[in-house]
Every structure is written in structure tokens, then in C-alpha cells.
Amino acid sequence: MLNSMQVPAEVMRKWQEIVDLLADILHVPSALIMRVEPPNIKVFVSSESKGNPYEPGEVACLNTGLYCETVMNTRRPLIVPDALQDEAWKSNPDIKLGMISYLGVPISWPDGEIFGTICVLDKKSNEYSELYLRLMLQWRDVLQADLRSIASMQREIEQREAKIRRLVDANIIGIVIWNVEGQILDANNEFLRIVGYDQHDLQSGRVSWADMTPPEWRDRNAMTVSKLQNKQAVQPFEKEYIRKDGSRIPVLLGVASLEGTEGQGIAFVLDLTERKRAETEARESERRFRNMQMELAHANRLATLGQLTASITHEVKQPITAALLNTQTAQRFLTRQQPDVERAKKAIDRAVLNGMRISEVVDRTHALVRKEPVRKDRLEINEAISGVIILTRGEALKNDVQVRTQLAEGLPAIQGSRVQIQQVMLNLIVNAIEAMSQMSDDRRELLISTQAEADRVLVAVRDSGPGLSEDTIERAFEAFYTTKSSGLGMGLSICRSIVEDHGGRLWATANVPKGAAFQFTVPINSDCQD
Amino acid sequence: MVGTTALAGSFALPRFPMSIAADNTDPLVLIVDDDEEVRFALRELLLSVGIDACCFGSTQELLSADLPERPGCLILDVRMPGASGLDLQQRLAATGNTRPIIFLTGHGDIAMTVQAMKAGAVDFLTKPVRDQTLLDAVAAGIEKDVAQRTAARRIKQHVDRYTKLTAREREVLREVAKGRLNKQIAFDLGISEITVKLHRGNVTRKMQATTIGQLIRTWELLPAGIREGSP
Of A175, A439, B37, B129, which sits with the fewest C-beta atoms within 10 Å of its C-beta? Predict the structure, then answer.
């Protein structure tokens, strides 16, 4: 593994200097650093000295009886003063180049594996003194120190690369290398999955981020690229890619330029399909929930108003009766033998007023029957409550309930939905009347009051009915809890959600001396005050 | 109540029409309805045909009012706060007030109608009501009251005359009314037949009857209490 390691350029320059010095000091034509690359050995660095026949990069086969082979095999220095005089060396390959003497020492990697040799060769017989050998060994140590630092740097790079590889190969997010020409140079499998391409497409250069970008995103892309020229990364942003099959996919894209490259960058791509779907689902279920709440509230209003049908009918029939009587009276005054225009006019005036009252009652009822989205406006709570009291007046009458009101004057306005606040009042009043109607002889009294508190308005509906036991007080607001034979038991639960939706509170207590008291608060909205 | 306060002012009117003198014997209709607009409209309709009317907002108001002795009828809303129209009907009947009652109701409730009619209501009308229907009912009510009052006056005359009879004359009258002969009466009372004839002549004269038949009819018109209670 170490064998294949690159030696950085600056080290190469230093080594060149070493062999040059070596050749110069020893007065030899060749000083070399050889590197083994099985099955060959290569001239790694060659001194730039006169008469040096070895070119850097030259390769020779091993197992041919080279000097260096022996050095590497024995791992020991070798001195051959004159090969021509030495039986063992007189036919070695270097003699053909005229190199008849040799001094070389082995170089090892930090892990002990052989790197090659550092050696000098001469065309004449050379004894190479002990001092030269020591000098060679010193240079060798310098080279080995360099190899150690290269190896450790390499290890570091490898570790770092492994971590990045892990990230890339884990395929949790898509990672690509891209260039400004619009190509995807490299990508992991997750990215290919996101955009629906495969390795083959990638290798044949068919994957292009420019092509995958929908037209409406092209400007944004150009902007990103230009931004990248000024800084290294841009804020991640959401966009869409066109997949190979033409469909679109939402992604989150983070882009950074690659330092030291010409117009290349790296990007991570996150598939947002799942998240978008979840968001849509959440929105949909929120919408369904709102809808259901609205339906439920509407159903409750209808049901409650249904209970009041007779009373409301009465409330409408009274002015209708008066209006009809007044118009018929006017006719009579006009068609008499001596028409009385003055009285007829008065009767008609009154009929007009009757008509207005009819329309008032109808409007008031219709407002509660309508199904419409909740709108919170500036609301005078007393006025809203009075409307409900009029609607329920007949019901109170029918059940012989006396209604008293203590509505505080000059109450600050609240921010609220008229229909919803009226719905709460409608429920509370109808409940109270119903509770009292179960009693036999006692005085039936309903007290409706409003008052201002620090930052809110307090509304109370008190009855003199049988009251609530401690257990019922707790359970009264639960959905589907009811003590009545009719009804769903949703009323109070709906009322509580309405009040809480207005930022207030609804609760029940015992009334003094008897009966139940339901109270709720609604915060005063300072925006509403003039 | 809130919505109607504005209207109340313009509908305010005196309970009794100003022009009516205390000794007036023209018909007077009493209107009881908790809705001021309805009360007012009813009164105006009656005025348009020349019938006086006065209005009450509740049964209590009516009961505590000092009513003039004038023929007429009541127009009564069935459903009112406090005592209902049907309650009032019973209260009035109990106190011997026989003014005919026309009920008005927002919705025709059969049970209520039956109860009211059994208790002697003239009519039971549903709101909104046609003017002619109402006026017909009022006319019928007034007619009935006038008849009742005439009948009552005649009975009162008879009772007045009866009270002027002596005890013996009353005994003789009762026996005559039973269809008994003079001698039977004389025997029962232990007096002579002549004396019976004398009493009989006095009774006929005092009761202002011209024939025996007339005398017997007069007797029969007397209230039962008097007929049975006298010795």
C-alpha cells in the first residue's frame, strides 16, 4: 500500500538536491534514488551530473543481477569497488552502461518494507571511503524521515477520506461533484436514486444538473453559481429536480465550491418527498380537523336552536301578527265611508316597525344557523348576549323562568366571533332553563351578568336549578357527557373549546344560595379599543 | 328587553280610552298580551270599527285593575309570563266574571284548545290572525256578553221580586211550581184552600206574572240556590 504512495513535489525537489550534492561530493557521474515497483525497479531521482546515463523514470527489470537488487535483498549497504575485477559482479547489467563501481544503501518505509536504494555509480574503479558510506547512511536516514512523514500524512488523509467515504457511501444524503458547465462529475447512489439515474448514466456523462433543473429554477441556479464565486458555500435551499423519468422531486440543496479546482463544486442533496408529503398530510388533517370542528359547532347551534324552534316561532309570529293587524287596520281606516288617512298612516308606520322587528329576529336566527368560517371581529359582548336573550325569551317564558340581566355598562370591546360567543351563551342559557324546568315549585330565576376584570370580560350565567354535584362539575365539560335524555352532550365541550379558542376560560361552580353558575372570560383586545 | 325598548315609546298609550265616560254602556274589549306591539295593533283594529278596547300587559295587571261594568269580551294570549291565559280563564270563572274569552295563540296546541273551549272560550284563534276572523269573534263575544248580561239582569229582577214574598207565599209558589193543586197545598200546609188561593194571587202579582205558565217559567229562571234553599 505504501508502495503506491505519491511523494510530494517539494520532497522530490529536496531529494534531487541530495543526489546532486552526492554526485558532486563523491565526484561520480551518477547518484540515484531507486524505487522498487515490482516486478521492476525505477530510477526515481537521478543526479543532474555530467556523464550520468540514468534518466529519471527509467525502468529496469528485477532479478537481473542489479547492484540495487542485492542491497534490497540483503538490506545492507553494498560496496563494489571494481566489478570488472570481481567475479560476482563482472557481468551485471550496469556494466553495459560502463558503471563498474557501486556504493548503495537500502531505503525502507516506516513499516519496514523496502522502498528502494540510494546509490552512487562510477565509471572507474572506486574504493568509496568509510566516510562516504557514513554520508550515504546519513542521507538515507533523511530520506526515511521523509518517508515517515509522508506515510503519516497519508494515514491522516486516508482516515479523513474514509470518514468522507463513509458519509458518501452511507447514502443518507445525495452527494455530488459538479462543474459550472452543468455536469455531474461524481455522485453517490443516494443522489442517483433521488434523480432516477444509474451509475452507467453517470459514467457516460449523461447526468447534468443543468438539465435536471426545471426552467423556473434556472435563474436561482445562476444566482447560486455566481454567489459561489465570492464565497465558499451558500445557504441550503429547496428546489426541484426533474428525474430521468420526467417526474419532479422536491429536494433540499446545499452547495459549496471545491477549493483548488477550476469551476467545480460539491453539493449535498436531501430528498424532501417524504417531508413534503407529511407536511401536506399535516395541513390536510389540520384542515379536516378545523372543518369537523366547524361542522360540529354548527350542528350544535342547529340542535340548540332546534330546541328553541317553538319559542323563536313565537318571537317571529308576534310582530307578524302585529304587522298584519296594522295593515288591515289601515285598510279599514282608508275604506271607511269617511276615510281616516291620519290613523291609517299611523297604522302603516307601526306595520313598518313591526316588519323591522321581524327582520331583526330572522337575521339574528339566521346568523346562528349559517355555516361559515369563524371570523373574529371587534365585538361588543353585551350586544351579542342581548341578541341571545331575545331569542331565548320565549323559551324562558314557556318554562316560567324569570330572566334578569346585569350587563355592565361601558365594557371594553373584545376580539371575537359573534356567532361563537352567541353559541356559548345559547348553550348556557338553554341548559339553565332546561335544568330549572325539571324542578317542581321553586322560583326559577336566570341571572345573566357581565363585568370587566383587569384585562378581560367576565360573563356569568347563574340559575336556581338543582345545581351540579362535585362529580358532575368535573365531568360536565367532557364530550358526550350528558344528564339529559336528548342531546349528544357535546354542548359544553364545544363551548369550552370556543372560549379557549378566544383565549379565555369556561368553568362551572355552585351558585348561591342554589343552582349552578357557569362563567367564562374573554380577554380584552387592546387593538380593539379606540 | 333590549330590542323592543325603542318601539315601546312610540306604542305607549293610555289604558282606557279618554273619551269614554264612566257610565258608558258601549261594549269594551279587554286585551291581555305581553307583546306591546300586538296589544296596540289589536286595539287599533277594534277602534277602526268603533269598538273601544283597553290593554293589559299581563294577567296580574288585568286582575288588579278596576274594570268598568261594560259589556264586552276578553282577548287573551295563551302564553304569557306569570299566570297564563288559561289560568286567568279559571280565575275569572271562579270569581263569577263571565266575560267571554277569545284566545290568541302563537301555535295551535290541540290540548290547550280543547281545555280552553271546555272552559267556555268563545274562540281560539291562531296568530297571525285575519282581521275579519278576529272581529267576527269579538262581535260574537260581545253579543254573548250582552245576552248574558240581559239574562242576568232579568234573573236579578226575579230574585228581587222573590225576596219581597213572605215565607208563606214562597212555600205556596214552590208547591205551585211543582204542579200541585190548591187543595193539596192547603192540606200540606194545614191552611184552607181559600187562603192558598189568596197567597197565590199575591205571588202572581208580586212576581209580575200574568199567567200561571209565566209564573212557573219565572220560578224556573231563579238561581237553583234560591229555589232549593227557600223553606
Answer: A439
